[in-house]
Design brief:
By secondary structure, the protein is an alpha/beta fold. Helix content is 45%, strand content 13%. Bound molecules: ligand PGU.
Length: 440
């Protein structure tokens, strides 16, 4: 960022996020009495994160019936976090391989991991990969991949505006703004139909300035669980290409929407097969259950091999002063699984089992609400896709469910279906029923 107005904007946003701006333009809050002897005495306590803060509140609740449906993290039927069998096997292989060392990885990460990640999202027969038009760098999970992509764009792309769907994952605005881009939104969700506002989406992208960047959720849109149909993706692609907009895919749930890795990559592959350029941020947090290992990748599909290699050389200059090079363990797990046919097949089965369990939870919750005669139409619970149900419950109803039923979820009414089990469905259905019938 080199323009002073952009610097000012970033400064204001960072202070706003830190909760230090109480009224606009006041800048730094000063409170000499609270300052004491510390040079940080004026630091204002920041609010908890809207998603991760839900877990903080949940952890403090002593109730035995408490239920965390906030963060999108898979739980078993017993309500426990899951380490995939195939991950345990890969780790075993890695630990027992005495030839493995702990030297720094290259700035761009593990070469095998990068190649295999590009294949996973673009398809093993992708002409873009065969033509060396894709550069892939290992990053710190989905978030890190989005951030590296944003900083590259702010430095090297002529348009600095990114359009993100309304609503979207809460961290998108912060990642892109602090990465140096200007964030605007396009219409996405229609609260009346609880479906996609395709008309509004197309209108908004049609009036975006040529060259604008467009963030698209590759599948299992967070928080709404509403994805475009294949035909609607076709319309979106046509518009984006005809207006020379630049697509930036966020793929955090490949395999979680349908249970099939190829099917969930269809949107991305449709854009890549037309020969145009695009960005893809991939995360292995959900589909391999590697949340805390922070494994992901940024791929940039370019027009030709020469551009791709120059782009990669500049990505290194973004990464080097940020964290120098990525961690080795998680990427080694992924590479071990992706390159071994048996492990890969086993992974797809475990992934399908997770996706299927989520679909079963949708059915059970829907049936439980129907059995209670809960007012309203709840068919969206079974229609929506991926980890989340965007219930339509309002902030007051959510607060009521937390206070009276110890059920924790984000204030926008999103619930993580992956956090639910057959044992806890009745409790959630009771809570929703009570919220809907007693809180307006
Ligand atoms: N993109 C989307 C659309 C996401 O939903 C998430 C995670 C990410 C990227 C980033 O995931 P990484 O862990 O960095 O790979 N969203 C989850 C997890 C909690 C969070 O907010 O980070 C969620 O509950 O929305």
């Amino acid at each position: 960022m080199n323009s002073s107005s952009a610097d000012r904007r970033l400064y204001m946003l960072s202070r706003h996020l830190a909760g230090t701006i109480s009224n606009e333009g006041s800048g730094i809050s000063s409170s000499p009495t609270s300052a004491g002897n510390s040079v940080f005495g004026n630091v204002v306590r920041a609010p908890e994160d809207p998603i991760l803060g839900v877990t903080v509140a949940y952890n403090k609740d002593p109730s035995p019936v408490k239920l965390n449906l906030g963060v999108g993290a898979y739980r078993t039927e017993e309500g426990k976090p899951l380490v995939l069998n195939v991950v345990r096997k890969a780790e075993h292989l890695l630990v027992n391989d005495r030839s493995r060392i702990k030297e720094y990885l290259p700035i761009v990460g593990l070469a095998d991991f990068n190649k295999l990640s590009a294949k996973l999202i673009l398809g093993s027969d992708s002409p873009a990969i065969q033509g060396n038009r894709v550069t892939t760098v290992q990053c710190l999970s989905g978030t890190g991949s989005l951030r590296v992509g944003a900083e590259f764009l702010a430095k090297h792309y002529y348009q600095r505006t990114i359009y993100i769907p309304n609503p979207t994952w809460g961290n998108h605005t912060k990642i892109f703004t602090l990465g140096g881009l200007t964030v605007k939104t396009y219409r996405y969700y229609d609260p009346v139909t609880r479906g996609l506002n395709i008309q509004g989406l197309l209108e908004d992208l049609n009036s975006a300035p040529s060259g604008s960047i467009v963030l698209l959720h590759a599948c299992a849109h967070n928080p709404t669980g509403v994805d475009p149909t294949f035909d609607q993706w076709g319309q979106i692609r046509q518009l984006i290409r005809s207006k020379n907009l630049l697509p930036f895919f966020d793929s955090a749930y490949q395999g979680f929407a349908s249970g099939n890795l190829d099917k969930d990559a269809e949107s991305v592959r449709m854009f890549v097969s037309d020969g145009g350029e695009c960005f893809i941020a991939q995360s292995y947090a959900k589909n391999m259950g590697l949340y805390g290992e922070r494994v992901g990748a940024l791929s940039i599909v370019c027009r030709n091999a020469d551009v791709a290699s120059r782009v990669e050389s500049q990505l290194k200059l973004v990464i080097r002063p940020m964290y120098s090079s990525p961690p080795i363990h998680g990427a080694s797990i992924v590479a071990t699984i992706l390159k071994d046919r048996n492990l890969y097949n086993e992974w797809t089965l475990e992934l399908k089992a997770m996706a299927d369990r989520i679909i079963t939870m949708r059915k059970q919750l829907f049936d439980a609400l129907s059995a209670r005669g809960t007012p309203g139409n709840w068919t969206h619970i079974i229609k929506q896709i991926g980890m989340f149900t965007f219930t339509g419950l309002n902030t007051k109803q959510v607060a009521f469910m937390t206070k009276e039923f110890h059920i924790y979820m984000t204030s926008d009414g999103r619930i993580s279906m992956a956090g639910l089990s057959s044992r806890t469905v009745p409790h959630l259905a009771d809570a929703i029923h009570a919220a809907v019938t007693t809180v307006g």
